[in-house]
Design brief:
Order of helices and strands: EEEH
Helix content: 10-25%
Radius of gyration: 19 Å
Number of strands: 3
Largest sheet: 3 strands, antiparallel
Strand order of the largest sheet: 1-2-3
Shape: elongated
Structural class: alpha+beta
Amino acid sequence: MPLPLSKEPVVPNAVFAPNVILRTTIGQDGQLITSAHVTLKGGCVDAQGKWTPADSQTKVFYIPNIFALESDISQYQGQALQLFEQFVALIGYINSIKRII
């Protein structure tokens, strides 16, 4: 027997990525290979830009190599590379200030 809801479900009107995990390794050919695990979750955003969680499920998708996107998303190859290059540059800037390695 189903239990009654204690509150009204919130229907999402937007999607956000609470986790993006990049993993870079050196391939057998000596080239870098970077993969990504991206978590997507539904949320609600109002006219003022305030976000609230929605009662929706979380889904994860995997990109095996951001330098060679799969055919269905290959049209975004340039944007993916540009974003990755900016991210790597930011890490370099932070490392030069904090001297982590």
